[in-house]
Fold each of these.
Amino acid sequence: MGNSTSPPTPKQIFTDLSVELTGFDRAELAGTGMIDTYYDTLLRMIGEREAGQLLRYANDALTADQQTRNGAALKKDVIDSPRFGPVVVSLIKLWYLGHWYPLSGAYRDLHGSTADDVEHVISSQGYREGLVWVAAGAHPMGGKPPGHGSWAEPPSLQTP
């Protein structure tokens, strides 16, 4: 019998990274229906080779942080990295707003990008499922209406 635990797939690493970046758990991110779309978006925006490097560094950092439980490796090796930090910021915006914001010219000069790396809304579903709405305790304008008469009650002050 071989090793019963197989290494995580790139999409699993992307999901684990997204959990750490957004503060939402795996089930909440899966509930948006956007994991596949946002994973594919990342590959399109920075290219498969660079995305592979980001995910490799993220996986190594996440594995190290499982031991220390302090997030220091992810912060040092990915979030604060000149190479991956700008991409991470765009990913956070993507999850919260459903909108891709392009990488800076300085980043592109050093690390390249693709022709798709322009500001754009990913999809109407991305807008409706943006984490910003849950974090704010609100509903997206024009989507997911809260129901008749809901305006008569003050908003819930629960945190996600």
Amino acid sequence: MEISINTPALLFPAISLIMLAYTNRFLALASRVRNLHEKYNRETNNIIIHGQIKSLKYRLKLIKNMQFLGVASFLLAIISMYTIYINQMQWAHLFFALSIISFVLSLIISLLEIIQSTKALELELSDIEGLEDPTIVEYLKKKFDRD
């Protein structure tokens, strides 16, 4: 397969947008960490706060890896463009493939972070009674029993 200099350039908007989303996640997480840290210092031995802080530490690692792979993908796409420019097509293919792999890995880690984020929100709500999620069957029974 032959690629042109425009092929790796197609990744630039996607990578830029995903990096912006990752940065927004990081900033929101940083704000949450600061708030929980302050709350943790005031209320010792709160198991929910402790669980949230543990989750946040893991999520920060995930976001760091997401951002690293996103930047690596961007740099590899640029190197791929350069190798196309100097007519080194074997290297261009290799760097382009590595760029796509880095981007995919970044997205997979992003999915893991979303799953962890959902668990953290469930932990946040765990101390409120009556908010248990019904199963789909229970939800449908309730829905049709009312009619």
Amino acid sequence: MREKHKIGVIHGRFQGLHNGHLEYLLEGKKRCERLIIGITNYTGNTKDERISRIDTHRLDSTANPFTFFERLEMIRAALLGEGICESEFTIVPFPIETPDLLFNFVPKDAVFFMTIYDDWGRDKFKTLSDLGVNVEVMWERTPEQKPISGSLLRKTIAEGGNWENLVPSSVADYIKEHDLCGRIADGK
């Protein structure tokens, strides 16, 4: 069994939080005592030249329907639902598109956990490595090996499909309670 790191950092857009994200978060939490969860594209209107070269859908407004606060609440509910104490995690903005700002939100001496599925993941790995932080890749998978994506979740919601089994039950409750399906269906 590997020794736990004191502080770990994990990041993602979490648009919305699905079961694949939960797997990612729980694996990161297993590896550290305290997990800092960074939400990327936290203003919803990031214009990142690197992203646009690699993966343009991440910048589309329909790919970013949830606010920073809504995503924070979904992450919080999911982790609490898994029995993780709130004192063991913190949720912050994570401006990967402006790397020189990262250390305003996360400590440089933490271990940065990530997964890689595509060129955007490889680009983020390089960005973090170039900053001199300790990056630990938890797994690298092909896009076909990805169990679910935010795009699939949003598409399923927009089409009125059975989306609740794609997310933790606490997240389904949050989305329904705040009538967020309508926003996705309307493309806003």
Amino acid sequence: MPARSLSLLAGAVLLGAGIATGGWFVGHGFALGRSPDRHVTVKGLAEREVRSDLALWPLRFVATGNELATVERQIAIDGRKVRGFLERQGIPATAIEVSRLEVIDLIAQAWRQGPVDERFIVAQTLMVRSSEVELVETAHQAIAELIAEGVVLSSDGGPSSAPVYLFTGLNDIKPDMIAVATRNARASAEQFAADAGSRLAGIRRANQGVFEILPRDQAPGIAAEQQVAKTVRVVSTIDYLLED
């Protein structure tokens, strides 16, 4: 066979081998790229009951009349009654702050029509801020004593006269709760893997979840800040890889 023909034949053989080899690598790589990402997504729940460590109690009281000076004197008298009541309940003066003073002249309101029985409304708000949550809770239960003294409590146009109970120690319990949620999630994943004849190969993705502060006794219309006892909850979502 002529040399030129041998050269062409050899080139054709090499080209064919190269295409075949290249095709094998392309096919193999495609197979690897399409290999299934086997994983299981599980959720881990952690809950803890806590007690509020801060109480905020706005006490808003109102006096009305046609003479501003008279109404102001009455609101000052009522203010002393409120402070006296709180001190009798064991709440010190250092925990009581003047929040705001409101003075409303009904005649000066351009939109109001018709006669006005009492021209001036004066409202004073005293804010109790205390870490003695149980003390505030007990005082609130005795609020009828203050009403019996003639103090008119009102939340109209202002804050509610009920205490607000807060939990401020969330950062202190976060690490332990995340650990519990993670353990619970892994236990669920291991059970799933065992049922599927697989085993866990590591974490593919993890979401810590959002911490929620909920009322311990959950019922319609009850908010967490209304209860001293609360439930802190977090649900972590974790994807675990599976292998045979």
